[in-house]
Design goal:
Distance between the termini of chain A: 34 Å
Low-confidence stretches of chain A: none
Oligomer: homodimer
Order of helices and strands of chain A: EHEHEHEHEHEEEHEHHHHH
Number of strands of chain A: 9
Radius of gyration of chain A: 21 Å
CATH class of the largest domain in chain A: Alpha Beta
Largest sheet of chain A: 6 strands, parallel
Structural class of chain A: alpha/beta
CATH topology of the largest domain in chain A: Rossmann fold
Mean pLDDT of chain A: 92
Largest interface: A-B, 90 and 90 residues
Number of helices of chain A: 11
Chain lengths: ~290, ~290
């Protein structure tokens, strides 16, 4: 089996490591816009074939993972479609699905072997140096096939990432983007904005307000250290659902603030207690 | 020296432990609305005097820490003032200062030995069982004396908590409440609200959205597991600055969202990059 990986950041390089650790019979090919990344990876992982062009990577491949920044995914998929064999399956790992699918469908409405995917794994540390073979183990891996995608293609991706330890499940692209906007994209928006607010307040007060930030602030803003370019892309690609999630969260923030201002302690206590209970229930999850 | 501690939650019980670990010549007295807490603490810490009434605790005390929920602080301080000796210093550990001070000043305008304080230590685990003797070590401990507070009283509190390892600094009550609203109270508001939004979305979609929450969401909402009663009090006590901080953060969130919607990638990149840089700079702080 030949597996191609386009993009060797945290996800792409982890995928490569996981495949190499899992099954030495799989041949792996890597291509990255940054040739230095590819050389590093090939040196780390003997047997990896470093490619300079998509044609090389596509030739005879059975499965290709597109692990580039989310904004580049659709173009790479569209570039691969004419190059791959008639049985090759394409998949991606972008964290916003609807816009990628729309672009691919607009150009290749009859192509049925693109299986959009999203491993729920990552972190604020980006780049090939932070990849690990264990990144997908016991993590959710969402597949979001659209109408017309071939069942066999879906099965091939599901089986392959399942072998790497991921917990595969399916949902529609729309539902994916709505849920991920709330549980991932919005928290990032908030973290970036809170750092901006702290910078403004520091300037306004002439005092380093961050010097007084304790554990809570640190937790909430940790993801503001995430890759700026990657999050710019994600925000733009999932703008509609991000806006919806923001409006939803804003209604909850302002509802809570209103109750505080009205001194409706019963209502405030009800909100805080329900949120606290829900958060404590999360602790037993698969991703502690 | 005799030190009284009213309230044996996380802060009060940690204070007691730190004092006992630090200097066996200090006599400690504890009072808690929950007598079971006091019995537990007295059993854990031999030599601690458990009191049932404020009169007992106040008699001959040199320094009294009021470590109750923030809403009860002013009443306890006002109850202590007529009971303590003319040299006894009173202090508290509440995380909102202006409203406490206003209440004490309204009733005892001439009392000069109340030194409002705020140790920047804590966590979502509340209660005496989670206290540790090391809670204050290398943590900021803010004193927020108002006009007229006796210098000697301020010095006594500063020296005492400095001995427990805290890094003492001073600021005005107003500046304290403004800064802490942004770096502590607002992140809590956001965490509680985000859990509420997730609950609403779960109901609306008929899907457990929290099952898809990864590390970022967990970080941002961790503090939603904090004590609901305590946070109800803090929100109400610091409502004005909390509202200001919310408006500031909202302007940053909506400014970022607007730039995303306008596809002003340059502006979005600028915001994200500045926030990221600021967050990375925080890592070297005293509270990692």
């Amino acid at each position: 089996m030949i597996v191609g990986i386009v993009g060797s950041g945290l996800i792409g390089s982890s995928l490569l490591r996981a495949i190499r650790a899992n099954d030495s019979a799989v041949r792996t090919r890597v291509l990255d816009a940054n040739p230095e990344h590819v050389r590093q990876l090939a040196a780390l992982q003997p047997g990896v074939e470093a490619c300079e062009r998509l044609e090389e990577l596509a030739r005879g491949a059975d499965l290709v993972f597109v692990c580039t920044p989310v904004k580049a995914v659709a173009d790479i998929v569209c570039a691969l479609i004419p190059l791959v064999s008639s049985s090759c399956v394409l998949t991606d790992v972008g964290s916003a699905k609807v816009s990628i699918i729309a672009k691919v469908q607009a150009r290749f409405p009859d192509f049925t072997r693109f299986v959009p995917g999203h491993p729920m794994a990552g972190g604020e540390a980006a780049g090939p140096a932070h990849g690990t073979a264990e990144l997908f183990r016991n993590r959710r891996y969402l597949l979001t096939p659209y109408d017309g995608v071939d069942d066999g293609a879906i099965e091939r991706v599901a089986a392959f990432v399942g072998e790497l330890g991921a917990q595969v499940s399916r949902m529609t692209p729309e539902r994916h983007d709505e849920i991920i906007a709330l549980v991932s994209h919005l928290p990032h928006l908030y973290a970036f904005a809170l750092m901006g607010a702290a910078a403004e307040e520091t300037q306004a007060l002439g005092a380093d307000v961050l010097a007084y930030a304790a554990g809570g602030f640190r937790d909430v803003t940790r993801i503001a250290a995430a890759d700026a370019r990657m999050w710019l892309d994600i925000f733009e690609e999932n703008e509609a659902f991000l806006t919806r999630s923001y409006e939803l969260a804003k209604a909850h923030m302002e509802g809570l603030l209103d109750a505080v201002r009205r001194r409706d302690s019963e209502r405030v206590a009800e909100i805080l207690t329900a949120s606290r209970r829900l958060r404590l229930e999360m602790n037993g999850d698969m991703q502690p």
